[in-house]
Write a structure and sequence with these properties.
By secondary structure, the chain is α+β, with helices and mostly antiparallel strands. The protein has helices at residues 11-30, 140-146, 235-239, 270-273, 288-294, 317-322, 358-370, 411-425, 435-445, 468-478, 534-549, 552-562, and strands at residues 44-53, 66-73, 81-85, 101-105, 112-119, 131-139, 148-152, 163-170, 176-185, 198-205, 211-216, 231-234, 246-253, 261-269, 282-284, 303-313, 326-334, 378-384, 386-388, 393-395, 398-399, 408-410, 427-428, 453-461, 483-489, 509-510, 513-514, 520-524. α7 (358-370) packs antiparallel against α8 (411-425).
Length: 583
């Protein structure tokens, strides 16, 4: 806490300090909290779970597709800030969201929370594009104190009866994760014209003997003997680090209308599961109502079998960074003629003396965060789609700084300066080809596969690419490398074709080969632009950076895990303060 005499400090400074402290404490809580030689206000990490009942049905031919968005009001601030979003649960008016929100909890603060529920109608990240289903405001203290806070959803045109339930539980410090695989035999037949479409739901028991859903497997269609895919879940999420805590597993028959039918359920614990495959981990799947009705004549509704259980230490992105892994970022800028003549005010490359271009804003937003993880602050800057001096040859891989062999620029500001100089020396042309710059970075990444470096390629473009087959192949080839690709769409073009490269919905493939990992994130910048004041521009850049960089740590970890690369011991960094002079 700040000392009592700190009232002399300017209030805005206090607010910034607390905001910074919150970020530090959140990180410390996630890392286990203990840092020798450091001091900190005690921060407990609370995991918040959300469920809804009786949501309004906004869709004509199906049910609503709800998503929950959490907003927080930071200490001393009046405006709400988006903290995170749940997954979308399709075709369901009574969702139990699997994704949790982890929040640092302070007894001495009023931590205001706002939960908003939306019916998702498109792929847009702009909440205004979706149907509002209601909101609820509370404090984190209310959630913690009540155990399960249940209140009606409110808002304009919201019908009565819609309810949101929020629970909070303190998270234990545990960096283990468990990999599990299950199969089943002789499940009950639930479908009239087929067999069953089974999936499993996993529930963690709470201190009040209620249960919270933590994972759902995929649905396997038309079978009574399913074998589900292997999945990995943090031990903290499955049982809060308590190996003896009860885990409930339910087997359901999936129905398109969201009215899934229970096949059966059983209880176990992580300690039991860690004994591995064998007779002790073959479970009778019991339907409570059937058992009560049939009595001794009822045996089970099938058997669920543990095929794999493996507990390992879950290394984090920060573990690798502390061990010396460098993040190398390359920026590639679109210089095709579709951007417009840079000398005219309608051009996306027009240099307004009072306002930076969208290209410059996107470059600065992402670059300023990435540069913190690069020790030498030297960034390759590439351009593509331009005619170069002196002979006007078209290039899809030229260096922004004009150097014939060295693409490196000093810091993100150096890249910005090189970008502006290039606008004066090249002619915008075309077409829009991505494959050359992807292959350029992939060549470097292929030489650094040992975990010492991870590469990020940031592509800023205004249009739909013209070498889609070659780009697909380049990405599939690069998916085995320590590389992530971020594509930011600039301007108002139709970017629908770009979603094909972002493998969130369907894994990218080329010539019959599938990408080894999802390494591409595409975001249109226009969805984050709100206003032209300096403050509004700063906020839009911050929102863009958060969106495009959110998946990078997960992609980073997926590469390290797939190649069994463990982090090196933390670097012992030497103090940089000069030695005090001798008296």
């Amino acid at each position: 806490m700040l000392p009592h005499h700190s009232h002399v400090v300017n209030a805005s400074v206090q607010i910034r300090l607390r905001s910074t402290q919150n970020a530090v404490y959140f990180k410390m809580a996630m890392d286990g909290g203990f840092q020798p030689g450091a001091g900190a206000i005690p921060a407990t990490l609370v995991e918040v779970s959300v469920s809804c009942r009786n949501l309004h049905d906004m869709d004509v031919f199906s049910k609503s597709d709800p998503m929950c968005v959490l907003f927080i009001k930071e200490f001393g601030r009046q405006n709400w800030k988006e903290f995170g979003r749940s997954e979308i649960i399709w075709n369901n008016l009574n969702p139990d969201f699997v994704k949790k929100f982890a929040l640092p909890y302070y007894f001495e603060e009023r931590q205001n929370l706002r939960f908003e529920v939306y019916d998702v109608d498109s792929k847009s990240s702009n909440l205004e594009k979706h149907d509002f289903l209601g909101r609820m405001e509370c404090t984190l203290g209310e959630v913690v104190a009540s155990g399960k806070l249940q209140r009606p959803l409110s808002g304009p045109n919201i019908r009565k009866g819609a309810i949101i339930a929020v629970t909070g539980e303190e998270l234990a410090s545990c960096k283990e994760e468990v990999t599990l695989k299950f199969s089943a035999k002789k499940l009950d037949k639930k479908d009239f014209f087929g067999k069953s479409d089974p999936f499993l739901s996993f529930y963690r028991s709470n201190e009040d003997n209620s249960f919270t859903v933590v994972h759902k497997t995929e649905v396997i269609k038309n079978t009574l003997n399913p074998s589900w895919r292997t999945f990995t879940i943090p031990v903290r999420g499955l049982c809060n680090g308590d190996y003896d805590r009860t885990i409930k597993i339910e087997c359901w028959d999936w129905d398109r209308d969201g009215g899934h039918d229970l096949i059966g359920e059983f209880m176990t614990s992580l300690r039991e599961l860690t004994r591995g495959p064998g007779s002790s981990n073959v479970y009778d799947c019991i339907h409570p109502k059937k058992k009560a009705k049939k009595g001794k004549k009822y045996t089970n509704s099938g058997m669920v079998i543990l095929d794999t259980c493996k507990v390992e230490t879950a290394y984090t992105f920060l573990d690798y960074i502390k061990g010396g892994t460098q993040v190398q970022c390359t920026i590639a800028v679109d210089f095709t003629a579709s951007n417009g003549d840079p000398k005219t005010s309608t051009s996306l490359h027009y240099v307004n003396p009072y306002q930076p271009t969208q290209y410059a804003r996107a470059l600065q937003a992402v670059g300023e965060i990435i540069q913190d993880y690069d020790s030498d602050k030297m960034f390759p800057g590439l351009g593509f789609g331009a005619r170069l001096p002196p002979d006007g040859r078209v290039s899809h891989e030229f260096f922004l700084n004009g150097h014939p062999t060295n693409p490196y620029c000093q810091g993100i500001q150096g890249v910005m300066d090189a970008y502006h100089r290039s606008l004066q020396t090249v002619q915008l042309y075309g077409p829009t080809n991505f494959a050359p710059v992807i292959n350029h970075v992939a060549r470097f990444a292929s030489e650094r596969r040992d975990g010492s470096d991870y590469f990020i390629l940031l592509i800023l473009t205004d249009g739909i690419i013209t070498d889609m087959p070659q780009t697909r192949e380049a990405i599939v080839n690069a998916s085995v490398l320590p590389l992530s690709i971020i594509i930011v769409g600039i301007g108002g073009a139709d970017f629908d074709a770009m979603d094909e490269l972002d493998g969130d919905e369907e894994r990218l493939a080329s010539r019959g080969r599938y990408a080894d990992r999802d390494i591409v994130q595409f975001v249109p910048f226009r969805e984050f632009i709100k206003g032209n004041t300096p403050q509004e521009m700063m906020l839009s850049q911050a929102r863009l950076a958060k969106e495009v960089l959110e998946e990078v740590p997960e992609q980073f970890i997926s590469y390290m895990k797939k190649h069994n690369i463990k982090p090196k011991p933390p670097l012992q960094r030497q103090p940089t303060l000069p030695t005090a002079p001798l008296m």
